[in-house]
Amino acid sequence: MEKLPKITIPVLVGVILLIIIIAKSSVTISSGHAGVLYQTFGNGVVTDQPPLGEGFHIIAPWNRVFVYEIRQQELSEKMQVLSSNGLEIKLDASAWYQPVSADVAKLHQEKGENYLQRVIQPAIRSAARSVVGRYTPEQLYSSKRDAIQSEIYEETKKILDNQYIQLNEVLVRDVTLPPAIKDAIERKLRQEQESLEYEFRLEKATKEAQKVRIEAQGKADANAILSASLTDKVLQDKGIDATLELAKSQNAKVVIVGSGDSGLPLILGNN
């Protein structure tokens, strides 16, 4: 077997070292991620430059890159909190969040890669306890779910706005009350519904009776006005008008003028 030329060995070593250097000096950032550069022989985390964007990058082999996902992510939390009267409520909620891309280096420097456990979870738990503690179990069960969702979002956002994290939404999926409390609330709601239904029927009947009374009173008032206006003179005039109309009829008749009880003409005979 022939020996390799002496010059070949250094070349091979150089190629191997070059491959190692290139491997250590390159980094590829995936879609939806950003890289935080750490300079080992510099000032550490680079915060005065934009983070490394998506794609291929060459860095010094002694430096490091910490990759963060900057897309929207979801945190699901199941918490036990207390209502305003001290009853334990189970809350199932989700938070949609993402690191602020431009501040991801500061996030890494001040909070670290486990910022979810250090910042976001404590923030949403604190906000949930504070908000739920303002309401009774009945309010939480019936009409205040949208309100507590909005309030938890606002309080959590106030905390995270200064932590280089963008909070997009908080969703309350479920509010679970103790079974005994839930049953009592449902019974109360049914009773209230039945009471409202009874009041509606009673009000409807009252309005119908009032309508009948108004119509009867209207008829009575109309009759009274009519009776007051029908004097003897008016009746005679009406009788004369009616007699003249009958006299115009084509049927055979006999008109006796002045023979009625009130001096009105009498009409006798027809075909």
TrEMBL record:
Entry GO MF terms: peptidase activity
Entry keywords, A to Z: Hydrolase, Membrane, Protease, Transmembrane, Transmembrane helix
CDD domains attached to this UniProt entry: SPFH_prohibitin
One GO-annotated biological process of the protein: proteolysis
Superkingdom in the source lineage: Bacteria
Cellular component aspect of the GO annotation: membrane
Keyword Protease in annotation: yes
Transmembrane segments: 7-23
Band domain span: 25-189
Membrane topology value: Single-pass membrane protein
Locations listed in the record: Membrane
PANTHER family the record matches: PROHIBITIN (PTHR23222), PROHIBITIN 1 (PTHR23222:SF0)
Protein name: Regulator of protease activity HflC, stomatin/prohibitin superfamily
